[in-house]
Write a structure and sequence with these properties.
Chain lengths: 275, 348
């Protein structure tokens, strides 16, 4: 991040001041309060809380499922964006609109719908269970839920970039002798990387914090399918506010560093945009 | 490598972009494909490069049938109007692309890229990204990228179209020099006739998807093959009249000998260039009387709008030195003759 004050565009001081104030009010102060609350625990109590096996298991599940879900979305989200941008087919607008559904749907509804689909008697569960694939009430269910809610992020960040991709660039690659796959992997994909990383991190961040859709399909078995946000709620319900915030602070810190890393990666891959 | 195109046609959803086109380019030639925009020039070029598939017809490269050969095996270099550089790659990687596709050795790639960088006078720019270059520099990188795999044919699609006049001029000179040194068979598309006349040793003029004339710049300029070319290349006057006697047409005070095989009353259009109007202050033989309605300064020449009576006007161009020496001024009586003209019948 660079502090740049010598641009030709006016209003730097004003907008920067506003941005900082706004971020403080909306983001930093609540987060600060969270950390403050956590400090009501002693260091030992804090460590005990956040390293208890049940909490560690929930972190693993939350971050692991979010990571896998974001990865799946990166691949399939790309395909959806590609098809929507590059091809004309009947019902294209419908598909385009459907991509946003996971945004619009109340997450609890999504959770109930997914659970109904994947239980032993559900439309999909009925076929998957005999194959030994259990989705509902397993970590796999968590992955399915966070994949569902994360899809729009990847599609919507890739779509405009794909649309603005100069088709002549691909023609140039072909004229230089590249085949389809070579052109995709050396010309198209690299041009998409910064947007791809953004989409991935948005989907990931959303999945880490996801609550509503996951708690229905996961079954919430401690040590197995209990996600960290649920654990926080549980603690809150037991009036253990300090314990709840301790778990939250760790999630916050981990997420912050992950996003920082993503930002750094993005700056590296977006180098060519510098003028 | 020679290029031969036979009866090539291409349609886009019912629109005939290229129709039944034939052309033949000798190995080592530098040819311009000139025509108004939308005449099918790019489409023809892209078909030769293998970027577009023709509906019918055949393309032969060095006598070999190449109509359905992949772009890679054609060994054709292509330069796009808007550069089409790979934005996420450095200048080095852009130029190296075609070599990497061909899996050349790293040491060979290094050598070839640096050789080309010096050819395009961008040594030291290898680590820059396209966004950090000027338009002219980008286009030179695009040319280097196309030349890297040593193509036998170089196709350029309006290569200077997006650049300003000064840079265009420089790049034109540079392409000429490049061609003299490398002798790669070159075909470039342009809608700028000045560019075509200056650079190419041969010009193909395209209109409505077909090549209307194929000749040297002088032939194109002095012997236009059609109405369209007479109007399109260079500045011209045109007048509509008819054959009034066998082998003669009259327009105002001017009398034009025409082809005696043209029937009487045949409607014709006569084209003549403003610099083929011979204008003097004193009467000389065979001139008609005219009056200077308006003078327009155009740099090295001065253009006069001449009133020849009966509400008829023609324009004449005189080199500035001659015009100043003669002291022509607005409203003055002068004498004019048309020294060269072209007659085309108008189909009714
Ligand atoms: N991919 C395409 N799809 C549909 N129409 C096209 C396509 N490419 C070119 N055309 C049409 O073909 C005609 C000729 O285009 P082009 O070859 O680009 O002409 P020029 O290069 O002479 O300007 C134009 O009218 C253009 O609209």
């Amino acid at each position: 991040m660079k502090l740049k004050s010598t641009g030709v565009l006016p209003g730097f001081g004003l907008t920067m001041g506003f941005t900082v104030t706004y971020l403080c009010l909306i983001v930093l102060i609540p987060l600060g309060a969270l950390i403050l609350k956590a400090t009501s625990l002693s260091w030992g109590q804090f460590l005990d809380t956040v390293t208890s096996p049940r909490v560690l298991a929930s972190y693993r599940l939350s971050f692991g499922a979010a990571f896998i879900g974001a990865l799946i979305n990166s691949i399939f989200g790309f395909m959806v964006a590609w098809v929507l941008v590059r091809y004309e087919f009947p019902g294209k607008r419908l598909v385009d609109a459907m991509v946003d559904l996971p945004f619009a749907l109340p997450t609890a509804v999504a959770g109930i719908a997914l659970t109904a689909l994947y239980t032993t008697n559900g439309w999909l569960g009925r076929w998957l269970e005999p194959l030994g694939i259990h989705v509902a009430f397993t970590p796999l269910g968590v992955i399915v839920a966070v994949t569902f809610i994360g899809l729009p992020f990847v599609v919507r960040t890739l779509q405009p970039v794909l649309e603005s991709l100069d088709p002549e660039m691909e023609k140039a690659a072909v004229s230089l002798g590249a085949n389809r796959w070579y052109t995709l992997s050396r010309v198209v994909f690299p041009s998409l990387v910064p947007a791809w990383i953004t989409g991935f991190s948005l989907a990931f961040a959303r999945a880490v914090g996801e609550y509503g859709s996951v708690i229905f399909i996961s079954g919430n078995m401690p040590m197995k399918t209990e996600i960290a946000p649920l654990l926080i709620i549980t603690k809150l319900e037991q009036y253990d506010y300090a314990g709840a915030t301790a778990i939250a602070v760790v999630m916050l810190v981990v997420s912050f560093f992950l996003l920082l890393g993503v930002n750094w990666l993005q700056a590296r891959t977006g180098r060519h945009r510098a003028t | 490598m020679s290029i031969e195109v036979r009866n090539l046609s291409k349609r886009f959803n019912g629109f005939q972009a290229v129709k039944d086109t034939n052309l033949k380019l000798e190995s080592g030639s530098l040819t311009a494909l000139l025509g108004p925009s939308g005449s099918g020039k790019s489409t023809l070029l892209r078909m030769i490069a293998g970027l577009e598939v023709p509906d019918t017809g055949a393309i032969h490269l060095t006598g070999r049938e190449a109509t359905h050969v992949s772009a890679k095996e054609r060994n054709v270099g292509f330069v796009f109007q808007h550069y089409a550089l790979f934005k996420h790659m450095t200048v080095f990687e852009n130029i190296a692309f075609g070599l990497r596709v061909r899996k050349q050795k790293e040491s060979e790639i290094l050598e070839r890229v640096y050789e080309l960088l010096s050819l395009i006078q961008l040594t030291g720019y290898d680590k820059r990204f396209p966004a950090q270059l000027s338009g002219g520099q980008r286009q030179r990188v695009a040319v280097a990228r196309a030349l890297a795999p040593r193509p036998e044919v170089l196709l350029l699609d309006e290569p200077f179209g997006a650049l300003d006049a000064k840079v265009r001029e420089e790049l034109r000179e540079w392409i000429l020099k490049l061609h003299e040194e490398s002798h790669v068979t070159t075909l470039f598309v342009t809608h700028d006739q000045q560019e075509a006349l200056e650079v190419a040793s041969r010009i193909l003029i395209m209109n409505h998807g077909a090549i209307e004339q194929d000749g040297t710049p002088i032939e194109i300029f002095d012997k236009p093959a059609s109405h369209f070319i007479a109007q399109f290349v260079g500045e011209t006057n045109y007048i509509d009249t008819e054959v009034s006697e066998k082998g003669l047409a009259v327009w105002g005070p001017f009398r034009f000998p025409v082809n005696p095989t043209l029937p009487l009353k045949q409607k014709i259009r006569i084209y003549f260039r403003p610099n083929d109007v011979y204008m003097t202050a004193q009467f000389e033989t065979l001139q008609v009387r005219a009056r200077i309605a308006k003078a327009r300064f155009k740099g090295t020449i001065i253009e006069y709008k001449l009133d020849i009576g009966e509400d008829k006007h023609i324009s004449a161009q005189i080199p500035k030195g001659v015009a100043l020496a003669s002291g022509f001024k607005d409203g003055q009586e002068v004498y004019a003759a048309i020294t060269a003209f072209h007659v085309f019948p108008i189909e009714s």
